[in-house]
Hints:
By secondary structure, this protein is of the alpha+beta class. The chain has 5 helices and 19 strands. The strands form 4 sheets. Strands 12-18-17-16-15-14-13-19 form an 8-stranded antiparallel beta sheet, covered by helices on one side. α1 (152-160) packs across α5 (312-329).
Amino acid sequence: MDMWYFAATSAELKPGKQLRRVILGEPVLVGRTAAGEAFALRDICPHRAVPLSAGRQIETNGQPTVECPYHGWRFGAGDGVCKLMPSLLEDQPYEVERVRVRRYPAHEASGGVFIFIASNPREADATIPPPDFGALPEKPKFVVERVFDATMDNAVVGLMDPAHVPFVHSQWWWRPPSVGLKAKQKYFEPRHRGWAIARHAPSGNSLLYRAVFGGEVTTEILFDLPGYRWEVVENGKGARFVTLTCLTPIDDASTRITQLTYWMGAPLLNLALPIAPGMAGEFLDQDGSMVDLQNEGLKYQPGMMWIDDIDVQAKWYLKLKKEWAASRAEDRAFVNPLAPTTLRWRS
Length: 347
């Protein structure tokens, strides 16, 4: 916890409406006021436990509030404080404002809404800045989303696995089987609360990148806690392509995968819009199929084998999580424990 998690796309939140998410096993109402501001509250009315997301938004004394559909209690969108209990009579001076639901700090950027979940439920403000993925357009070109039957840890480890691509993702337009396996060598360096594969020329099989961006194209791949991976492809002439994958833990057994894709200065890519979401969805579905197969094995063997160098990133992820937890428990600054290194594998 004590992290920013991806909650919803901006397009999902219509003015004056809200939706329900489960994050880290807790129900969360993610909404947008009629004025356009994103907000998030715990999605349980403290009175009779009805989800507030099933209610409506209504203005109360000039403030946007969410009305519980059961008894009409209204809670401030900005602070979670109860503003009205309609059943009370004038001679029943109950202190309405003493009742509140948990408010989660919300941040909206580049077509995504992120919420901060603190380990202390009474923590009202975010203690770290929201995630920064660099310069991105106001909204993505398209979004693909899936729910995997996997723990957050297993989903993250699968996301960063560099050796499965030729076996799981063998599309003709990306990595046809005829390419075969090639030796790879990448330089990694610590970044923020994660790491980056330093800027390099894309793999020789990435024909799509070269066709769109030309021969001078470079790519950089980054990972940051709690579960963000983004790849930036550019050619130095203003053309840029970014895929941002956000992993959000739903509960102990499932994880939401949301992939937002952006590009700028690459008009040829607009021609691919009718088919691009389907292609990206096929990628995620292939990974999801492997998760389902993995779950069959994990029923009988709870542990998995890790070897160098293809599994070093998985070990880094766990090391970063451990340091983050320690830094919060000891009330000190996070210190990235990773060191620059070169990893080699065949894929």
